[in-house]
TrEMBL record:
Gene: mrnC
Localisation per UniProt entry: Cytoplasm
Protein name, entry field: Mini-ribonuclease 3
Family annotation (SMART domains): RIBOc (SM00535)
Summary of the function given for this chain in its UniProt record: Involved in correct processing of both the 5' and 3' ends of 23S rRNA precursor. Processes 30S rRNA precursor transcript even in absence of ribonuclease 3 (Rnc); Rnc processes 30S rRNA into smaller rRNA precursors.
Lineage, highest ranks first: Bacteria, Bacillati, Bacillota, Bacilli, Bacillales
Length: 167
């Protein structure tokens, strides 16, 4: 076995054991808890997008146009707000704090979304960024499975997505 193959096997073992820090070797410049929620949402958006793409590819139809259309349905602010509502009952106090901070962070809202949906989407992305930088991959997987499950059909697009601001 060549040195390169041994290195690849060693890295694969480290990934499986959760010993590698992140997918890529660039650590954040600050501790996760010191990062601005918008920064967490920035990386969380990419993590969420990757989860959605993997989910869509796991389905039967792999035509590029179909993959794109299905992904768009799941990454819109409305869909992210809906998915956050699915997760709220399962969040720890720490995770709920990250969501609150992400939701309350001021940012420019695009014309394609209403303010409430956009803030909820930012909150979800901040949560994903936080968990990613905290290396809580298993928790990310749990939340993605909860979001993608078809079991909870009680949450509809028309329902309000408001979280408690009391903290």
């Amino acid at each position: 076995m060549s040195d390169e193959q041994q290195q690849q096997e060693r890295q694969l073992g480290q990934i499986e054991a959760g010993q590698l820090d992140w997918l890529f070797p660039y650590r954040p410049s600050k501790d996760t808890k010191q990062l601005n929620p918008i920064v967490l949402a920035y990386i969380g958006d990419a993590v969420y997008e990757m989860a959605v793409r993997q989910y869509v590819i796991s389905q039967a139809n792999h035509r590029p146009n179909h993959l794109h259309r299905e992904s768009i349905k799941l990454v819109s602010a409305k869909a992210q707000a809906r998915n956050l509502q699915k997760l709220v009952p399962f969040l720890s106090e720490e995770e709920a704090d990250v969501v609150r901070q992400g939701r309350n962070t001021k940012s420019n809202v695009p014309k394609s979304a209403n303010v409430n949906e956009y803030r909820q989407a930012t909150a979800l992305e901040a949560l994903f960024g936080y968990l990613y930088y905290e290396k809580r991959v298993e928790r990310l997987r749990e939340l993605v499975e909860l979001m993608m499950s078809e079991e909870d059909v009680s949450i509809k697009e028309s329902e309000a997505v408001v979280l408690d601001d009391s903290k």
